Every structure is written in structure tokens, then in C-alpha cells.
Amino acid sequence: MDKVLHPASSRGTANYGWLKANYSFSFANYFDPGKVQFGLLRVLNDDFVQGGMGFGTHPHENMEIISIPLKGEIRHKDSMDNTKVIKAGEVQVMSAGTGVEHSEFNPSKEELNMLQIWIFPEKNGLQPRYGQKDYSSLLKKNELINIVTPKNDEAENALWINQNAYLHLGEFESGRKIEYELKDKSHGVYVFLIEGEAEIDNSVLRKRDAIGIKATESFSIMFKNQSKVLLIEVPMN
After folding, report:
1. Do 151 and 193 form a contact (C-beta atoms < 8 A)?
2. Per-residue pLDDT tens over the stretch 90-141
3. Does the annotation list 168 as a binding residue?
4. Structural domains for the chain
5. Any binding-site annotation on 102?
6. pLDDT, tens digit, for every residue of 25-61?
7. 58 is in an annotated binding site
8. Cys staple from 162: which of 43, 121, 134, 201, with CB 3.0 to 4.6 Å?
């Protein structure tokens, strides 16, 4: 097993007043040549957006974008005529493809905390598309739930993207241990601990710590405290 540990304290940060951002990989004005991407995972941003504020209309292309609100809600509007609200417990996917413009705002007075993930697509120039699903009733204690799969390998209840990638979310009680088996042994998995404390191969993760794992077919996670975890399995090249 090869692994790289990314403590929460090593992330890039930015404070724009209305937005406090944490960058797991090089983004905007933050650049670290050792943290540009993990395989085909390009971005994992942990954003805190003040009430009534947000990102104005801006373009994307040739990227698979997954948004996961952890607290609060996002009002999304795009050039595909989608106007949606995505709340905590829901997941949004957007294939930017040949090009799409969108805006994201926090319509509430309360602070929004969201994860935004970018994954390179299997090929450029694809048709833009949008998907959204509420997972709040599907999440069960001490189980991983598959929230995103590749287009041609759709799991029940999962959203899909144009890449051979799999995203799982789970909430676990203290003392629970799980085994994760990779869908493809050539892939890697980026484990992001949203809350709690966990141990993987003698590496301890605490809130917002992450570890990239590759060159293995499976690994175990021991949860030392009540925890919430996100697993992102992606091709490494």
C-alpha cells in the first residue's frame, strides 16, 4: 500500500469575508506543486459561505463537479435552465462538458458549509448534464452508501458521472471497523474525514484530515470516535 497523508492544517486557505475556503489541492491563489491532484481527482474544496452570499455566474468546461452541502443549502442556477436548491443531506452532480455557466448562492441567513469536488471526465467535449438526489433517508449508521458511480455502472440510488469513479459517504459509531474493497485495483482512494477520528494502516485521521491510498486492493478503517467520512475512488491516470 502507498499512502500520502494530508492533515487539515496543511490545506490551502482563503478568506474573502463572505467566503472562507479550504483547499485540499492547488486552487485559485493557492499553489503547492506536491498537491495539484490525486489521480483524476483535481479539487476538494471545503467552503464556508455567509448567509445571502455566494458565487456569481461563472463558466466551467470538461469537468465532473460534485457538490455536497454539509450544513445549510445552496441555490443553484445554470445555463441548462436548472434552478434548484440543494440542502444538507442532498448531493448534486454537474457534467460541465462542452461548457456550462452557473451561480451558487446561500439563500439562508445561516452559514453554508459545502464540499465541492472536481474530477476529470473520461473525455472532453461531452454533453453538459445535471443530477441531484436526496440521501438523507438512505444514510444508515455504520454503513457506506454509494452516492456516485460511473455512467455505465450505476448502483441503486447512485448519481452518475462521466468517469470511472465512485464516491461513498458514511456515518459510524466509535469502535466500528469497516473494510473497503476497491472497484479497480489500479485505482486510488482519497479518504476525507469530515468529522470524528479514524485510523487507517496506523495513520490517525482527525476532523478534515485526509489520506490518499493506492497500490492496494482493499484497506480497513477503524473509527475511534463517532465519525463521518467521504471516500473518493478514482483512476490514478
Report:
1. no
2. 999 999 999 999 999 999 999 999 999 999 999 999 999 999 999 998 888 9
3. no
4. 2-235 (2.60.120.10)
5. yes
6. 999 999 999 999 999 999 999 999 999 999 999 999 9
7. yes
8. 121
